[in-house]
Amino acid sequence: MRNPLQHKFHPVYSLAILRKPAILCVVPLLAALTRLDLPALLTALWQELALISALLVMGLVLWHGAGWQLQNGRLTFRRTLFTLQWQESFSAEDLAFVAVRRCWYLRPIGAVRLEFSTERGATRHLYLSRSAAEALADRLLPAEATVRDLTPSPADRLVLALLNCDLFATVVLLAVSLRNISDFMGRRWTQEMAQTGLHTIEGVLGHWLPLGLSGLASVLLLLTAFTLLLAFSRTSGYHVFLGRTTVRCTGGLLSPTRWVLRRECITCADLRRTPMARLVKRYPLFLSVGGYTGNAVLLCSGLQDPTLPCLFPDAVFPQPAKHPGKRRSPVPFLWAPVLLLAVCAALLLAGAHRPGILPYAGRLLWLPMAAGVVWLWIALEGWRGDCLVQTACGLPAVCTTHRLTHHHICILRRPAAVRWQNPFSRRVGRCELRLGLPGRRAISLHSLRLADCDCLFDSSQEEVN
């Protein structure tokens, strides 16, 4: 007798497993287009039709032999192709994260993407009907009664959308700069830009930029607006509910998403201080659970935010070190921004010496030079403040800098650690450290004192000299 919990995947499953082989369908068409031959193009179209038909038949065969069942707390996938059979099983107790995503391109056909991740970092996704996906998610990781509602306010939702939109953050920084110089250039110029919109911006850019780049800047502005709309759609209706052992989040306009994670399976929490977050003084908190590292979950006012003890009672988010210690090498921190500034300065000198070679060097290089100055300032902060501390429970907490972002990371699982020394760092008693976390995430720390890293190493850890 067939098990009542055994079900078929949604038919879109057959298209999902054949998306990579479908690239082969483009090969005959490209060969015909490169020769500009009409008979060859017609022949390629017939070949395309034959390949697509064969892929559809193969997809239907694979879909017919595939299914899933939930029995005795174990989720089992079964794929059958003629006499061959593949089977994979997961225990519901090992799951750390379950998400139901109603993607905008799947909603018209009634399909839903179900994602889950185990505590060890294994991730899988299924394509099911909406009712089957929601019922399976409730069985795998049931949502508990709400202990505390951590839903952000409307203002925080706006900030969360801006922080999730990396491209727009740069434009906002530019807008702040334009606002600061508006007194020098006159309020009328700013009002005209606000009234006439993109056409005035394109005209201003066309006056200051060479031919062709003004149109490119307009396209970038349109892409920025599109990215902002996507960020707003992700944070629309965003709610966060804290249970006794789970965290549940819902939200999204184009692709409504509902996900639940186990609090005990959180591997690390990352509080990020980006340039945009510093302006608004609201810092996003990212959680890593198994193989999941998604968008920001919460907004915090700082390291002492009262929300953090509710999520992590025993967690410690490290403060930047006030004194980096003697003989800390600045090279791993400063080489990239210094190289960027040196290249821009060399191009400016070349343009000033021979204007005919680089006629627009002065107009184009001020943006990368400004970015290089900000990068250098943040890198200096990282050189002075990056550190690794040991918490009371024996786990490490990290304060590190990556590009333009400061990361305050609280690690809740013992990570894999590798440290190595070169002749110069061995002489001053320092080392390079790399921490490996579940979900293929790695954290690199530069020029740390050996004594600070000793807490990570025992007989099972690795050290490279």
What would your notes on this structure say?
- The chain has 465 residues and is of the alpha+beta class.
- The chain is built from 17 helices and 21 strands.
- It has helices spanning 12-17, 26-35, 38-64, 130-140, 154-164, 166-180, 182-185, 187-196, 198-208, 213-235, 275-280, 307-311, 331-353, 361-364, 366-385, 423-428, 450-453, and strands spanning 66-71, 74-81, 84-91, 95-101, 111-118, 123-129, 148-149, 239-242, 246-251, 257-262, 266-273, 283-289, 292-293, 298-300, 387-390, 396-402, 405-411, 416-420, 430-437, 441-449, 462-464.
- A seven-stranded antiparallel beta sheet has the order 6-5-4-10-9-8-7, covered by helices on one side.
- A hairpin with a 2-residue loop joins strand 16 (396-402) and strand 17 (405-411).
- Helix 5 (154-164) packs across helix 10, helix 9 crosses helix 10 (213-235) and helix 13 (331-353) runs antiparallel to helix 15.
- Residues 1-5, 167-174, 180-185, 193-198 and 459-463 have low confidence and may be disordered.
What's the arrangement of secondary structure elements?
Elements (H helix, E strand, L loop, with lengths): L11 H6 L8 H10 L2 H27 L1 E6 L2 E8 L2 E8 L3 E7 L9 E8 L4 E7 H11 L7 E2 L4 H11 L1 H15 L1 H4 L1 H10 L1 H11 L4 H23 L3 E4 L3 E6 L5 E6 L3 E8 L1 H6 L2 E7 L2 E2 L4 E3 L6 H5 L19 H23 L7 H4 L1 H20 L1 E4 L5 E7 L2 E7 L4 E5 L2 H6 L1 E8 L3 E9 H4 L8 E3 L1
Helix pairs in contact: 2-3, 5-10, 9-10, 13-15
